[in-house]
TrEMBL record:
Pfam families: AA_kinase, Aldedh
Stretches assigned to the Aldehyde dehydrogenase domain: 295-531
Protein family per UniProt: In the C-terminal section; belongs to the gamma-glutamyl phosphate reductase family. In the N-terminal section; belongs to the glutamate 5-kinase family.
InterPro entries: AceGlu_kinase-like_sf (IPR036393), Ald_DH/histidinol_DH (IPR016161), Ald_DH_C (IPR016163), Ald_DH_N (IPR016162), Aldehyde_DH_dom (IPR015590), Asp/Glu/Uridylate_kinase (IPR001048), G-glutamylP_reductase_CS (IPR020593), Glu/AcGlu_kinase (IPR001057)
Tree of life domain: Eukaryota
An annotated Gene Ontology molecular function: glutamate 5-kinase activity
Keywords: Amino-acid biosynthesis, ATP-binding, Kinase, Multifunctional enzyme, NADP, Nucleotide-binding, Oxidoreductase, Proline biosynthesis, Transferase
Gene name of the record: P5CS_1
Protein name: Delta-1-pyrroline-5-carboxylate synthase
NCBIfam families in alphabetical order: PRK00197.1, proA
Limits of the Aspartate/glutamate/uridylate kinase domain: 15-258
One GO biological process term: amino acid biosynthetic process
Catalytic function, reaction form: L-glutamate + ATP = L-glutamyl 5-phosphate + ADP; L-glutamate 5-semialdehyde + phosphate + NADP(+) = L-glutamyl 5-phosphate + NADPH + H(+)
Length: 662
């Protein structure tokens, strides 16, 4: 967004802000004041004051500066003999006295054109309600007069035994003091200035650490490795994060950013994505990937159990609500991916109206008198489905999972990332709270897949839908059962008895409808009696008109003058295919068994005996008669009369049960 974060738009509405200046921001490496840096900060504060902002400053650095100054003076005023004596540790309650004055005077010097007032407080002061009311009224009066209040803890009179480590008080350092003041004084924003850009995932010096732009408590708490605290401060980044979280979840937005870079305060208020933002609504702005792989899988399992517990009518209603939501959000979906989604909505309604697949009695067996064993259909549990591209697949898979009572984790291809995200949101928003939107989790990073594949105690089945490489990698990387097919080398056998008009429609559809699909035709086998026929010549022309590149096996390349294919065992996934001539149906079956992948194979024939031989002897997951291979969706045997998919334009799916025939 050109440096502007949508979640920071509210910053432009800020009027009153508390700015905490950290120790490391105003000191040099030798412990002395960095007057140039301090001057630049004060210039920003002056500008904000002039622009009408109500600025409250919490300054730090007094302890460190005082310690350095007193140690230096003790050193130069000591004899050599004094230096040989054991050194008495300085009482940190006393060292701020000198440099509180020095620091305050330095800020006044930098703020010559602006009136400022120093206010020293202790945590005990805030135990007194009357003090807090008076403090609020005093600050309100100062701000009305364009006076800048500068707060600091009055360490010299603090009653805590170890004020820099004791966190039992109302506040325990200047970061927590700044957070407390932001709440008491009803600030719109708290800015905690540091010597680094913000909160990192690890020590800022580690090149593997990344700046966290928005802190999400559910995601980041406990997962960050903090580096060393600043050389002169009390708590470093740990203290800042603790204070920021407390303030943010009490309703005060917080930004931790560098005070060393020029104009950072101004840029933050302009909405630029600098530093780390803490906000009570941050979890709502976070991207989809906001929980670990295990948390996502466990949530899907819990939601699937709630889904299984509701009635078939209620599951059907969820699907109908999703279909309505898709149509209602058609404009939004098309913004992310220009596509016609009406067919998706219609397919979901068809699925919703199908017979409930859960709880069907598939078989009943009497084991003994009064002892009956029933085999019933039931959900699998949690499915992990990895698919490439094709955002329509997300809708189809999610709908099937809901209808069958299964939890679901989805990982789509990066090419459809935006479409997948919006479709996932629309679908999960339509799932009632009684089930929970976490029924369907969307995995957004490829790096999460290895972690998910280890969760054999939570995920029940992995279904990869994509390339040979994708399926093979997943099969080799998990103990979870995998339902996948590594190759989609599908054949169409054109028998001598084929109706050539039907054959042309089926072959063109099997290759052209979706060339990259796993059920697209990759090899066309032709009976030898058709090799010189007019019908085959017309079919070849039809394929070439559609842009299909044809390669031949040894016989076809010679007879039909095609370039020879490098291998029969090749999945083109494009507008290309291999053609080969065979002697008969038995030769076709042998070819399929030798070079195929046992995915989907089809025969086009009017001779029923030949067709039955093919259907019963081809050892593939799906075998078809007179229908395009593109219909494959798990059927073992499909018998048609010339049907083609053609983008589902000219076919109406009825899904009507028929009686069994002997």
């Amino acid at each position: 967004m050109d440096g502007l974060d949508r979640s920071r738009a509210f910053l432009k509405e800020v009027k009153r802000l508390v700015i905490k200046v950290g120790t490391a921001v105003v000191t040099r490496a030798d412990g002395r004041l960095a007057l140039g840096r301090l001057g630049a900060l004060c210039e920003q504060i002056k500008d904000l004051n002039t622009q009408g902002y109500e600025v409250i400053v919490v300054s730090s650095g007094a302890v460190g500066l005082g310690r350095q100054r007193l140690k230096y003076r003790r050193l130069v005023n000591s004899s050599f003999a004094d230096l040989q004596k054991p050194q008495v540790e300085l009482d940190e309650r006393h060292v701020p006295l000198l440099d509180k004055i020095v620091l305050w005077l330095s800020m006044i010097h930098c703020l010559l054109d602006v009136t400022s007032a120093q206010l020293l407080v202790t945590d005990n002061d805030f135990r007194d309600k009357a003090f807090r009311n008076q403090l609020s009224e005093t600050v309100q009066s100062l701000l009305a007069l364009k006076v800048i209040p500068i707060f600091n803890e009055n360490d010299a009179v603090s009653t805590r035994r170890a004020p820099y480590e004791d966190s039992s008080g109302i506040f325990w350092d200047n970061d927590s003091l700044a957070a407390l003041l932001a709440l008491e004084l009803k600030a719109d924003l708290l800015i905690l200035l540091s010597d680094v850009e913000g909160l990192y995932s690890g020590p800022p010096s580690d090149p593997k650490s990344n700046l966290i732009h928005t802190y999400v408590k559910e995601k980041h708490q406990g997962g960050i490795t903090f580096g060393d605290k600043s050389r002169m401060g009390r708590g470093g980044m740990t203290a800042k994060v603790k204070a920021a979280v407390n303030a943010a979840y009490a309703g005060i937005p917080v930004v931790i950013t560098s005070g060393c870079a020029p104009e950072n305060i101004i840029k933050v208020l302009q909405g630029e994505c600098l530093g780390t933002l803490f906000h009570q609504d941050a979890h709502l702005w976070a991207p989809v990937k906001e929980c670990s792989s295990r948390e996502m899988a466990v949530a899907a399992r819990e939601s699937s159990r709630r889904l299984q517990a509701i009635s078939s009518h209620d599951r059907r209603k969820i699907l109908l609500d999703i279909a309505d939501a898709l149509e209602a959000n058609e404009k939004l979906i098309k913004t992310e991916n220009e596509a016609d989604i009406s067919s998706l909505a219609n397919s979901i309604r068809v699925l919703a109206n199908m017979e409930d697949p859960i709880g069907r009695i598939l078989k009943r067996t009497e084991l003994a008198d009064g002892l009956v064993l029933e085999k019933t259909s039931s959900p699998l549990g949690v499915l992990l489905i990895v698919f490439e591209s094709r955002p329509d697949a997300l809708v189809q898979i999610a709908s099937l999972a809901i209808r069958s009572g299964n939890g679901l984790l989805l990982k789509g291809g990066k090419e459809a990332k935006r479409s997948n995200a919006i479709l996932h949101k629309i679908i999960t928003d339509a799932i009632p709270d009684s089930v929970g939107g976490k029924l369907i989790g969307l995995v957004t990073s490829r790096e999460e897949i290895p972690d998910l594949l280890k969760l054999d105690d939570v995920i029940d089945l992995v279904i990869p839908r994509g390339s040979n490489k994708l399926v093979s990698q997943i099969k080799n990387s998990t103990k979870i059962p995998v339902l996948g097919h590594a190759d989609g080398i599908c054949h169409v056998y054109l028998d001598k008895s084929a109706n050539m008009d039907m054959a042309k429609r089926i072959v063109v559809d099997a290759k052209v409808d979706y060339p990259a699909a796993c059920n697209a035709m990759e090899t066309l086998l032709v009976h030898k009696d058709l090799s010189q026929s007019e019908g085959l010549s017309e079919l070849i022309v039809d394929l070439q008109v559609e842009g299909v590149t044809l390669y031949g096996g040894p016989r076809a390349s010679s007879l039909l003058n095609f370039p020879e294919a490098r291998s029969f065992h090749h999945e083109y996934n494009s507008l290309a295919c291999t053609v080969e001539i065979v002697d008969d149906v038995y030769a076709a079956i042998d070819h399929i068994h030798q070079h195929g992948s046992a995915h989907t194979d089809c025969i086009i024939a009017e001779d029923q005996e030949v067709a039955e031989v093919f259907l019963h002897q081809v050892d593939s997951a799906a075998v078809f008669h007179n229908a395009s291979t593109r219909f494959c969706d798990g059927a073992r045997i499909l018998k048609g009369s010339g049907q083609v998919v053609d983008g589902d334009k000219d076919i109406v799916y009825t899904h009507k049960d028929l009686t069994n025939e002997s």
